[in-house]
Amino acid sequence: MTPTKAMKSKQPAQTQDRQPGLESEMTPRPESEGDDYRAADKLRGCVALVTGGDSGIGRAVAILFAREGADVAIVYLDEHEDACATKQRIERLGQRCVIIAGDLGDPAFCEDAVSLTVEEFGKLDILINNAAEQHPQESLLEITPSQLERTFRTNIFAYFNTAREALKYMRPGGVIINTSSVTAYRGSAHLVDYASTKAAIIGFTRSLALNLADKEIRVNAVAPGPIWTPLIPSTFDEHEVAKFGSDVPLGRAGQPFEVAPAYVFLACADSSYMTGQVLHPNGGEVVNA
Fold first, then answer.
1. Which of 31, 36, 79, 187 is least enclosed by beta carbons within 10 angstroms?
2. What angle do CA 218, 132, 54 make, to 5 degrees?
3. Tell me: the pLDDT tens digits for 4-56?
């Protein structure tokens, strides 16, 4: 699918009954690969760990990294069907892939995911902190302490915990890329806790970039707009899903393959003079970056 074709696509009303959702139950399924992408061995010999790599943006990033020559570890919650499909695609591309299931809200699992990756591949060059969850509520009064804690554990605590473990193995030239969101900049009336975590990711990215500059480890972020991933039908009602993405200037939700090249750019030597920065593939929304 090319970007031109993507502009014509619309998603019908649909829901899924649990997060993080499955690509196999979506209509249409998200597009992980674009026809026009031309790989150039930009990540040849690298090892990458991608959280939330089973589906959505994470899947598209994992596949594109493999096309660029990287071996990939995928961390996911329990969407085994999606994870196995992504692993099979990476292996068909001639790269190695390991899938690791578990809850990133548990600090011990964050440590295990990194150590298992290094055990499998012998090193770790690139960490993509991408996994997230969101739970819309009409009022702050409806956000329970347990929801608040759960959202922060997955969306920002896990980024700290996984990065801390990764730094035990990363050498100069290593890269950390964090997935934020356009909601970090414009807010979200019904995703107050989620948007707060995504804003925290920006502060984490910029601060860690300063902290690691002398170690020659770069830290950047990507802040996508509305992207068609399993998180959408597993989060919103049918009416919201049907109109998802229609309010941005491009008038549609983006596809994962339209976001993934931003991660390749930040992971490879093309961005060697960038750290503490944020890229904004968001359909044309103007943000105060």
1. 36
2. 85
3. 455 455 788 888 888 788 888 888 899 999 999 999 999 999 999 999 999 99
Span 84-111, average pLDDT: 98
Distance (Å, rounded) from C-alpha 88 to C-alpha 46?
19
Q: Which of 76, 185, 194, 263 is catalytic?
A: 194
Let me know: does 78 contact 99? Beta carbons within 8 Å: no
Tell me which CATH code domain 39-225+259-279 carries: 3.40.50.720
On whether the CB atoms of residues 60 and 262 are closer than 8 A, the answer is: no
Is there a contact between 191 and 249 (Cβ–Cβ < 8 Å)? no
Query: d(Cα 127, Cα 212) in Å, to the nearest integer?
Result: 14
Tens of pLDDT, residue by residue over 166-177, are 999 999 999 999
Name the strand (E) or helix (H) holding 288.
none
Q: How many CB atoms lie within 10 A of CB 165?
A: 21
Q: What is the C-alpha separation between 83 and 155, in angstroms, rounded?
A: 20
Active-site residue, 263 included = no
Chain segment 244-259, per-residue pLDDT in tens: 989 999 999 999 999 9
Query: Among positive and negative, which fits the CA dihedral 39, 40, 41, 42?
Result: negative
Q: What is the pTM of this model?
A: 0.95
Q: For residue 107, count CB atoms less than 10 angstroms from its CB and return exposed for 0-12, middle for 13-18, buried for 19 or more.
A: middle
